[in-house]
Amino acid sequence: MGKTTTAKILFLLAGLMLVGFITSTINDNHDYAGWLLMGCFISIALALRSYELLKGYSFTVMIFAAVTAAMYYPQHFSYVGDFKLSKLIVPLMQIIMFGMGTGLSIKDFGRVLQMPKGVVAGVVCHYTIMPLVGFAITKIFTFPPEVAAGIILIGSCPNGLASNVMSYLARANLALSVTLTAISTLIAPLVTPMLMQLLAGQYITIDFWSMVMDIMKIIIVPIGAGLAFNYFLHGKFKWLDDIMPFFSMAAITLIIVVITAAGRDSLLVVGPLLIVAMLLHNLTGYFLGYWSGRLLRMKETDCRTIALEVGLQNGGMASGLALAMGKLSTVGLAPAIFAPIMNITGSTLALWWRSRPTEVQETSEQAITGKA
Fold it and tell me: Of 5, 70, 104, 107, which has the highest C-beta tally within 10 A?
């Protein structure tokens, strides 16, 4: 049986389960409805793996399946015995950040001198556009104060590894992307608490120095350890390089599920509106990031890079900070929703750009083809 045939069967199965979900929901059989919707998403995710162009969306659809489980059966994602699953969020983020550190080197920071305009423009755009757009959204929409603070929090965080992956897919400036991620993360201990105090202080009490220490603990120390590991033991643990991407995806999924389960009751009230708000936040980041680069007369590849670096945020860090505040079920909601949304929109935008190479890329490809 070929891949295409398997995919068609899986899509058909997904359709049948979707019909079953709708029927069960209409008849108030919600216990069955949850399983059917989960099965629908899992079938779609598996089907997408059969298509080279679409398999990048498989992970995001699996997140939807996991979120469905958390929304319908939250009791299974809060405790395991007497152990509270939210306690895993910070250790998981530290391991993810350690993995990010192992993928960086001192050269990534040194590129600031090689491409100062792009780095300065990218960092300034990131830490102005997303926080201010988040703040504006809290004024446009009416959310509870702690949920509004979470919107500003996700906008005030640095960009994460997703932006590097999307830049690679989009054939953007990957070196600039990695450098922007490194620099924005490095200055986050000061910039993020400052932005939160300025913009979110009206919604919740912000302990500046406590947040500084939390970011150091969750982000900077693990990345520093990863950098040291890469410097002294580069290439000696290839299995670690192979396993980290899969571990990171699993960890991010678990973090989102735990937050969703913790904030389920609040999500049932503000969920649809918060989804609209987070989609608007994310798309506005891409739009303003791209056109900021154009106004600065930057190369097309650099404009694409800045768009992705601005629009994609480190949702895991935001979740960890929400937990540290003791407000995972409220402040943590916006990051939990933003993460899957940005994966969908980021993948879509990256693949759309990939199908539209810049003039330089076209010339280069034609030269290679000619030589071949």
Answer: 70
